[in-house]
Amino acid sequence: MNKVKLIRVIIVTITLSFLSTLYIIPASAITLKSLKNPADLLKKKKDSGGEKVDLKNAKTALMALFFESSNNYLMAQELLLKAYGKNTEAAQVTEAIAYAKDSGVSDTKKLKNSMKVTTNASKSIETSMKDESFKLSAEGKANYAKSLPFLGKGLLGTIKLRPETQSMIANIQSNPMNAITQIGGLSKIIPNIPGYITTVTKTSKLVISGAKAKKIEGADNLDSEMDALAL
């Protein structure tokens, strides 16, 4: 190989080497940079839908706790409505108790119905209790007294329900699609439970204070128990 050809080969080799460095290295640098970019990592995590928590077992435990407390509270409401002569509303509550125990009905429908009936009954009870012209009969006072043990059990269960519900709602909000897949329509109803808890607590306080004012048997004991729970 003569000297001129040798020089040409050296020039071509250097040129190719330079071009390879120019196109390949920046591409690698960009790839590494993108992998280390926090925004890209966050986007990947978001796209993956977050951690898929097992909600089925949590749902079973939550529903058991809800219906145990709800049924006790509904029985208290049934007796209170009877005490105030609201027999039509009391019958609706009786139906709701039976409906909640029907194994052929989905938890979604039962949960929605129990909360609706409880809310309506609470409004009726509060209206009746604020009516100063209404005087409880002897039978009414007896029904009022009978309601208090159920009220206490229902309220205690409702207090226990709060942290379980908050945990469930947090899991639903962190991955809505996973929640819908695992627990279906309940994922839309469970977030309403905190409002239900507020209603139950508010009405219970009124019932307990009313029982004390009317000197209903068992009122003082229930009041003491609720004070211990910082209701």
Overview of this structure, please?
- The protein starts with a helix and ends with a helix.
- The protein is elongated.
- Helix 6 runs parallel beside helix 10.
- About 11% of the residues have low confidence.
- The protein contains ten helices and no strands.
- The chain folds into two domains: 45 residues; 174 residues, no CATH class.
- It is mainly alpha-helical.
Keywords:
231 residues; mainly alpha
Short description:
This protein has 231 residues and is mostly helical.
Strand content: under 5%
Low-pLDDT runs of 5+ residues are 21-36, 41-49
Order of helices and strands: HHHHHHHHHH
Q: What is the rounded distance between the termini? A: 100 Å
Number of helices: 10
State mean pLDDT (0 to 100 scale): 83
| Main β sheet profile | none
**Category from helices, strands and their pairing:** mainly alpha
Gross geometry: elongated
How many domain units?
Answer: 2
Q: What proportion of the residues is helical, as a percent range?
A: over 70%
C-alpha Rg (nearest Å): 33 Å
Number of strands: 0
Annotate the secondary structure layout.
Blueprint: H1 3-36, H2 38-47, H3 55-83, H4 87-100, H5 107-129, H6 138-174, H7 176-183, H8 186-189, H9 193-213, H10 219-228
Helix pairs in contact: 3-4, 3-5, 3-6, 4-5, 5-9, 6-7, 6-9, 6-10, 9-10
